[in-house]
Design a protein that fits this description.
Two copies of one chain form a homodimer. The first copy, chain A, has about 170 residues and is an all-alpha fold. Chain A has two domains: about 50 residues, Homeodomain-like (Arc Repressor Mutant, subunit A, Orthogonal Bundle), CATH 1.10.10; about 110 residues, Tetracycline Repressor, domain 2, CATH 1.10.357. Chain A has nine helices and no strands. In chain A, helix 4 packs across helix 6 and helix 7 crosses helix 8. Chain A is elongated, with a radius of gyration of 18 Å. Chain A starts with 6 loop residues before the first helix and ends with a helix. At the A-B interface, helix 8 and helix 9 of A face helix 8 and helix 9 of B. Chain A binds a DNA duplex (30 and 30 nucleotides) through helix 3.
Chain lengths: ~170, ~170
DNA sequence: ACTTCAGGCTAACACTGTTAGCGAAGGAGA
DNA sequence: TCTCCTTCGCTAACAGTGTTAGCCTGAAGT
């Protein structure tokens, strides 16, 4: 029987977190992960079900840490918005894994996604439709910035200032 | 010598366009592409350099068709915004290939990316910073919608109405 | 008729996630 | 202590990915 909750499993989770942050989503392969733990890739499957379990775990950690960062930020909409950008740029791979591949809803703790969504709604203080637009605005800015879609000489600080003013 | 501009190359381009729209980015493999042309995968390399050439070609077509759709829309900001959403939802895979993987700038026609960027700036009629925020807003809305991040019961028509009002 | 070459082909390589099955180490019970 | 069973490593392998090397055939040019 596979050990799905032992100390090795915890080490796998920790190593995958490091690997993601260092090498990005594309660098997160089962063999690279196994190398880091000085075991062979197939041995990972004695402790976890499949790669999606690792993905889901990282998505959950991403959502959680993101939520904490937003909560910690100052109360003003401006502070929250800058915290959004700041966290995403500081953790681009963690941000990527939560937004640019399908969210494995069945395998992350219930309520986690809603918790983050509600957090954004609280920030705006208005209705859900407005909150979604604000969320989309911040997500779009970060996504385009990380993807390098804005020209190098773009003044993104100023762009964010304008964006916050639009809210 | 490889034939890099013959009729077969044109057929490869056409087939890759179909394949992308039918099966999505994940379904666009060299072997699947070759199957559609009734040849074997390695034979593709007699006509093209590598897969990135196909990706770049599709990104260029995406940008071009997107630009046309936006230009054709009514002059109002609202009409333009709805055209943005409409085109992206009607061509999700083409939209995806232009925004969710790195844009192969060195391999798409010069000026194409700037053309689309300028188009968005024209829509807002304001400065670049404002235009970028508007672009991010629309991109974010579409990206989150395609990724299924909004709840099923979300009224996205209304969300877009609010978003347009924010512009 | 001879040569050249475009454009197919198969075999293979390095990579991906994953499964089957083997073997050694350690603990539990007689 | 002997035996048994579980845990947890391992290698070999499979199907998939993009890609390269090298072979062969048919057609076109001189």
């Amino acid at each position: 029987m596979a050990n799905t909750d032992g100390p090795t499993r915890e080490r796998i989770r920790a190593a995958s977190y490091e690997l993601l942050n260092e090498k990005g989503l594309a660098g997160l392969s089962m063999r690279a992960l196994a190398d880091r733990l000085h075991i062979k890739a197939p041995s990972l499957y004695k402790h976890i079900e499949d790669k999606d379990e690792i993905i889901a775990d990282l998505q959950a950690r991403g959502l959680q840490e993101f939520g904490i960062a937003i909560r910690r930020a100052g109360k003003s909409r401006r502070a929250k918005a800058l915290a959004y950008r700041g966290w995403a740029l500081a953790n681009p791979h963690l941000y990527e894994i939560t937004v640019s591949i399908p969210l494995l809803r069945d395998r992350i703790p219930a309520g986690l996604e809603d918790g983050v969504t509600n957090l954004i709604i609280e920030i705006t203080g208005k209705d859900h439709e407005h909150a979604r637009a604000v969320w989309a605005l911040m997500h779009g800015l970060v996504d385009l910035e990380i993807a390098g879609r804005f020209p190098k000489d773009a003044d993104l600080d100023l762009t964010w200032k304008r964006a916050v003013a639009m809210i």
